Amino acid sequence: MPSRLVHVVDDDPAMRESLAFLLTTAGYEVRVYETAIDFLDRLDETVSGCVLADIRMPGLDGMTLLRRLRAAGRKLPVVMMTGHGDVPLAVEAMKLGADDFLEKPFDDESLLHTLRSALERDGSGPPRDPGLQDFVRRVGTLTERERQVLDALVAGGTSKEIARTLDISPRTVEIYRAKLMAKTRACNLQELVRWAVLAGIA
Questions:
Q1: Which domains, and CATH codes, for the chain?
Q2: Which positions fall inside the HTH luxR-type domain (predicted)?
């Protein structure tokens, strides 16, 4: 049976309190840490569970925390919380071995689903999503322009930035984005990025 322990690492006291309340109410055992250093200092006694860490923290950030965990050979599943516009960091985190990421603000159900999946995998790495082969096939149906927008989105580009690069209007970028999301059947940017990383596109 998968562990029900979640280690929350976030420098924002309100966020820690909110997450601890939600997860405890959902039946999880929760340990909170103000800094990545606090968590790493207690790593020897941490043998199970999932790490839920903010990607941007003063001092030691979430990326460095992830690198140190993996360098120490610790396979605890790690879910990163990212702010808006942190897509390139999320891609890098998944390539470094993070199990998933959540873009703030996220809803309770998305968080619980993501943690449940990560705990079930128990450090065996990002999921081999059953929809992955279908995703790769569907990417092959994109037009050249839709593929350009996909690549730019996964690289973290905003609609305005993509519009400047491709010399089209931001509104046109949004139209292409809607089309490629429909064609790939990605529910949101998070899922699009996850699939792109797993497929080796990002």
A1: 5-121 (3.40.50.2300), 132-198 (1.10.10.10)
A2: 135-200
